[in-house]
Specification:
Rossmann fold, three-stranded parallel β-sheet, 14 helices, 434 Repressor (Amino-terminal Domain), elongated
Length: 355
């Protein structure tokens, strides 16, 4: 890996003092907009990211790994009582636990950040400047920004298919078998339970993981000769419990035959649907089947317990830390790795199976 550019390089490229460069990153409002943009442009061109402490400036080592992901928190669970904490154990929480566990095993701390907002210096760049290695959820950070960060330190992309073409082919990548998992679950409903009227709920274009799941759903239906739409039967803005409940109500009120199964893109929505169907007096699975995806702890606590696809979220976090450390300590100098972690179909009561 080439020598990382320094604050002196940025100052020389932008034609300003070192103190001005420092103020741009520490107190951007104290620098004129024209000067600030010139400094940031020079930093981008050089691939410079500021280090978080004096030790990092000297040794380029912080003993910290970073993780960035979008803030997809569920507003329904944020307001919940303490005894409902299991409802908040969603996808990112498990990845964080896995990555923190592996980082600690290697002697590293973990710095995490959510709700990435663009600004004079984005949160992703701030995190990258304070860590030795960086893991980021797909489509969280602009590709151009990731390319700059990756010049300084190893970066692992998490979830979704590898994207960015040749621009990011040099990055390690970890995902789970979303397509295969949803395809297997859908085949189970079609072949083992004989269902035919399936309704898929999710959004396909904003999440590469959900897009892969929807394609798995489509492929299973086509294999069975069951007509399937080119897009989800119902799109949602956020994949939360509240949205799942609203989706169940909307599908029940559309008129015509009731769907035989509601196939949700994640467990959070499926749990919300279970509550909505209960309020309507509909029995699950006798009147309608409900399934999810992720395998969060809440999926086994609801009644009936939720049929779902369990993905190894803890293992994804662990694998990210392991990959970063292997790059940092030089034990892995080979070509970029692309790992696909297997998933498991969990048959439970919400589809008519026993646990």
């Amino acid at each position: 890996m080439s020598t990382a550019p320094t604050v002196y390089d940025v100052a020389g490229r932008a034609g300003v003092s070192i103190a001005t460069v420092s103020r741009v990153y520490r107190s951007p409002d104290s620098v004129r907009a024209e000067t600030r943009e010139r400094v940031l442009a020079a930093a981008r061109e050089l691939g410079y990211v500021p280090s978080g402490n004096a030790q990092g400036l000297a040794s380029r080592s912080t003993g910290v790994l970073g993780l960035c992901f979008p803030d997809y928190s569920d507003p329904d669970t944020e307001a919940a009582d303490a005894e409902d904490d299991d409802a908040a154990m969603i996808y990112f929480d498990q990845i964080i636990r896995g990555m923190e566990r592996a980082a600690r095993r290697h002697g590293y701390a973990l710095l995490i950040a959510a709700s990435l907002k663009d600004g004079p210096e984005s949160l992703a760049t701030k995190v990258a400047g304070r860590v030795d290695g960086f893991a980021v959820l797909a489509r969280t950070v602009p590709l151009a920004e990731l390319e700059v960060i990756s010049r300084r330190q190893p970066v692992v992309m998490l979830a979704g298919p590898r994207e960015g073409g040749e621009r990011l082919d040099h990055l390690d990548h970890i995902e789970v078998a979303n397509h295969a998992g949803q395809r297997e679950l859908t085949r189970h409903l079609l072949a083992d339970h004989g269902l035919r009227r399936l309704a898929y709920v999710g959004f396909a274009e904003d999440s590469p993981d959900v897009e892969a799941r929807f394609r798995g759903f489509q492929d299973a239906c086509r294999d069975a000769g069951v007509p399937v739409r080119d897009e989800p039967d119902l799109r949602v803005a956020m994949m939360t419990q509240a949205e799942g409940a609203r989706a169940a109500d909307a599908l029940c009120e559309r008129g015509g035959p009731l769907p035989e199964a509601l196939v949700f893109a994640n467990d959070q929505m499926a749990v919300g649907a279970l509550h909505a169907l209960e309020r309507r007096g509909l029995e699950v699975p006798e009147d309608i089947v409900v399934t999810g995806f992720d395998g969060i702890p809440l999926s086994r606590l609801v009644r009936p317990a939720l049929t779902t696809v369990h993905q190894p979220m803890l293992r994804m976090g662990e694998a990210a830390a392991d990959l970063l450390v292997s790059r940092l300590n030089g034990t892995n100098t080979g070509d970029p790795e692309s790992l696909v972690l297997p998933v498991t179909l969990v048959r439970r009561g919400s589809c008519g199976c026993h646990d």
